[in-house]
């Protein structure tokens, strides 16, 4: 209960660093064990004694959440006691107090670019000199390319791959050009909604930090209002275009009571993450994923022996010399 937890990866949102069928060891000691927030039956995640909830308390840990950590947390939009909500795993991109934005798929934090890191993947548009050319299956498997799909142009295919794989493919003599697939259509399902954001061009938005005070405006209320009301447990509402009330008291500002994080999947174009449902509050964090203790593809009975007892990359995924800065001339970063 206080030292570790075991989880499995059910979806491809963290590929290629974490695969469907990976079984994870999650350390609760890194950030400090979170005390129970409800009463229920052990190992029965979805049920608890109705009406019995305890305030958030975390014992001291030997570390803190850092950018690049793969963290397991309770899914914030769920209902019910926090520690009974569904478990998710994503990578921390934005820290408390950061301003985060995405421009043409590249994450910017306080103006600094964080290109796609080691083992992360996204959609690319690969233009071939001739539609007949195909990447052999053994080579595709060797490069761990998740999928190759046709487009309306016979010479162009949509490829889900890491920057390392794209660098190798770009050297093939029959490859004319490679560029990221940029989504142009605004998506209303993104957080906070109705901002014209896409998954590839998002923000900037400020990530709340404990003790930080923000001025409340009609423009930022859709961002901070739900956080104050849902995660800070305050009765927050907008009274008029320019006035707001918290616990019945009219105010023009608010000071946050806990830290928040912005998380994203390593498989950037196949991940429901903070771009879609917002921040992860500190009290929702379960622990840090540190290793895979077992792994098996759902389509096979044979374990993936190379992934057993394998450590999980954290901040090292953001290598100082990113592959994205070393791509050949025929690749648009």
UniProtKB/TrEMBL annotation:
Gene3D superfamilies: Umud Fragment, subunit A (2.10.109.10). One of its GO terms (molecular function) is serine-type endopeptidase activity. One of its GO terms (biological process) is signal peptide processing. It comes from the Bacteria. It holds the Pfam family Peptidase_S26. Residues 1-123, 216-293 form the Peptidase S26 domain. Its main location: membrane. It catalyses: Cleavage of hydrophobic, N-terminal signal or leader sequences from secreted and periplasmic proteins. Its EC number is 3.4.21.89. Belongs to the peptidase S26 family. This is Signal peptidase I. It comes from Longibacter salinarum.
């Amino acid at each position: 209960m206080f030292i570790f937890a075991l989880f499995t990866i059910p979806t491809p949102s963290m590929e290629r660093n974490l695969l469907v069928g990976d079984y994870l060891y999650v350390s609760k000691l890194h950030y400090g064990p979170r005390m129970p927030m409800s009463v229920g039956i052990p190992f029965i995640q979805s049920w608890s004694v109705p009406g019995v909830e305890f305030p958030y308390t975390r014992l001291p840990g030997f570390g803190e959440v850092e950018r690049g950590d793969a963290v397991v947390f309770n899914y914030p939009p769920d209902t019910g006691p926090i520690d009974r909500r569904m478990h998710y795993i994503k990578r921390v991109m934005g820290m408390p107090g950061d301003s985060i934005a995405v421009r043409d798929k590249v994450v910017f934090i306080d103006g600094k670019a964080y290109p796609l890191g080691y083992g992360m993947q996204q959609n690319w548009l690969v233009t071939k000199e001739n539609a007949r050319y195909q990447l052999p299956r053994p080579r595709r498997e060797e490069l761990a390319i998740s999928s190759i799909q046709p487009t309306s142009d016979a010479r162009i295919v949509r490829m889900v791959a890491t920057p390392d794989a794209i660098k190798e493919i770009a050297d093939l003599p029959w490859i004319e050009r490679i560029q990221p697939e940029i989504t142009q259509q605004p998506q209303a399902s993104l957080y906070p909604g109705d901002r014209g954001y896409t998954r590839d061009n998002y923000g900037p938005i400020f990530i709340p930090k404990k003790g930080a005070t923000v001025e409340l405006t009609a423009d930022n209320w859709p961002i901070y209002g739900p956080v104050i009301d849902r995660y800070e447990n305050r009765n927050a509402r907008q009274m008029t275009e320019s006035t707001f009330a918290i616990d019945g008291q009219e105010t023009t500002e608010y000071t946050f009571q806990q830290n928040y994080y912005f998380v994203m999947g390593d498989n950037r174009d196949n991940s429901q993450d903070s771009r879609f449902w917002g921040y992860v509050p500190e009290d929702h964090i379960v622990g840090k994923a540190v290793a895979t203790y077992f792994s098996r593809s759902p389509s096979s009975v044979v374990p993936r022996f190379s992934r057993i007892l394998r450590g999980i990359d954290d901040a090292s995924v953001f290598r100082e010399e990113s592959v994205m800065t070393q791509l050949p001339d025929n690749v648009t970063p």
